[in-house]
Amino acid sequence: MAQTNGRTSRRDIYLKLRQLVLTLELAPGAALSENELAASLGVSRTPVRESLILLAQEGLVQVFPKIGSFVSRVDPAQVADAQFLREAVELAALDDLPGELDAEVVEELRDNLRRQRGADLGLEEFFALDEAFHQGLMRLSGHGNVWTTVAAAKGHLDRARRLGLHENESPAVFADQHHEIFAAVLGGDIALARTAMRSHLRAVFNDIERIRAHSPELFATGTPTVPVRRNVVVWE
After folding, report:
1. Which residues, 6+ apart, have CB-to-CB distance to 34 below 8 Å?
2. Own/partner pairs for 151-154, CB < 8 Å, 24+ apart?
3. Strands (E), 2-141
4. Are 208 and 165 within 8 A, CB to CB?
5. Which of 6, 34, 100, 184 would disulfide-bridge 192, Cβ 3.0–4.6 Å?
6. Selection from 67, 72, 64, 68 nearest residue 37 by Cα
7. Tell me: the pLDDT tens digits for 114-173?
8. How many whole angstroms separate alpha carbon 146 and alpha carbon 5?
9. Cα(88)–Cα(95) distance, rounded to whole angstroms?
């Protein structure tokens, strides 16, 4: 990774590590080695250490003195908080839709929905389209810039959503829900759009319960736990 200056390098490293956590490439509960991360990114340990501190402040990394740093396990409580924020914002945006929708944004959303049906679409490609779709709806309401604030607050939620995508055989069910929401918006039926949006956004809770049943190690519990470094990392 190129280093244009110290500030840019630190920002780039932070964003790269954050993306690795959010995309599950650094799995929940995984041990983090500053040396290995620095080597893989081609930088010194300092920006890596600084980035891990920022990620810890977001609750995406946990640092245990004399033990090490670990990717935080997905916290259902933080998922619920982020979901509450996201739902409140997106439903409010639907209430604020103008009588005449921006034709350019509408066409962008139509194209987005067509691409969501792609036969060879990867999960990360679908996730990006999903994000763009929801941001596009907020742009229709004139509040597209708010999406940046929402996105910054939903790290645990995004990991849970990705786990749900991996759990499902196909993202088609989510694409269908997007089509339902969009059709209601175009038809001017805001009550139906709100109902469909609420159901769509809350589906993540069912995913969490289903995944936690067979992979509880991916999720935080109500009781604080501290990992123990042996030959392998053990959470107790």
Report:
1. 45, 48, 49, 52, 69
2. 153/82, 153/85, 153/86, 154/82, 154/83, 154/85, 154/86
3. 31-32, 61-64, 68-71
4. no
5. 184
6. 68
7. 999 998 899 999 999 999 999 999 999 999 999 999 999 999 999 999 999 998 878 999
8. 30
9. 11
Nearest to 189 by CA among 176, 180, 177, 201: 180
Residue 21 identity: V
**What span, in angstroms and rounded, lies between the C-alpha atoms of 212 and 209?**
5
Q: Which two tokens stand for residue 185?
A: 């918006």
Identity at 77, one-letter amino acid code: A
The two tokens of residue 192 are 């139906």
Q: Is 52 helix (H, G, I), strand (E, B) or coil?
A: helix
Q: Is 177 exposed, middle or buried (0-12, 13-18, 19+ CB in 10 A)?
A: middle
- Bridge partners, 31 (sequence order): 70
CA 146 to chain centre: 16
Nearest of 84, 182, 176, 92 to residue 126 by alpha carbon? 176
pLDDT in tens, 25-37: 999 999 999 999 9
